[in-house]
């Protein structure tokens, strides 16, 4: 099975892979980008939480998360397919978020403040679930772009998003 965190293969005779991504905004089920970017090879969409701080950008119609100690609500999306399919999904998500292939901010893009980070995801009862990729923005960028802090950690009430709570 391929390891999407490193791209290495444990068993080259099997070309199956799994990709896990935590989403909290427009990529959530029902969100405007979910079907377009997440419909392919999606095996599970589990309500979940991660540690961080959540901000709304009403001028753009999407949120951003930073590192932090509050709980951010979203979904753990688990994709299953060939390593090529999972790699393509991650590349498409990176492009949407303005992230270079190595997970760092891609300079010169509208969203060049986002980074893809490997982070622990928890169940809704705050039990550790697994690690997954999550897209975060740097705190100084949130301030520069005048992000609106969401102390409840839930973007569902914003911009016509769908709530699971």
Q: What is the beta-strand fraction?
A: 35-45%
Q: Which percent range fits the helix content?
A: 10-25%
Mean pLDDT: 84
Radius of gyration: 15 Å
Structural notes for this entry:
- This protein has 165 residues and is an alpha/beta fold.
- It has one domain (2-149): Hypothetical upf0131 protein ytfp.
- It is built from three helices and seven strands.
- The chain has helices at residues 34-38, 83-97, 139-144; strands spanning 2-3, 17-23, 42-57, 62-81, 114-122, 128-137, 148-149.
- Strands 1, 2, 3, 4, 5, 6 and 7 form a seven-stranded mixed β-sheet that branches.
- β5 and β6 form a beta hairpin.
- The model is unreliable at 1-13 and 159-165 (pLDDT under 50).
How are the secondary structure elements laid out?
Blueprint lengths: L1 E2 L13 E7 L10 H5 L3 E16 L4 E20 L1 H15 L16 E9 L5 E10 L1 H6 L3 E2 L16
Parallel strand pairs: 1-2, 2-6
Antiparallel strand pairs: 2-4, 3-4, 3-7, 5-6
List keywords for this structure.
165 residues; alpha/beta; Hypothetical upf0131 protein ytfp; seven-stranded mixed sheet; 3 helices; 7 strands; 16% helix; globular; disordered C terminus
Briefly say what this structure is.
The chain has about 160 residues and is of the alpha/beta class. Helix content is about 15%, strand content about 40%. The chain has three helices and seven strands; from the N terminus they run E-E-H-E-E-H-E-E-H-E.
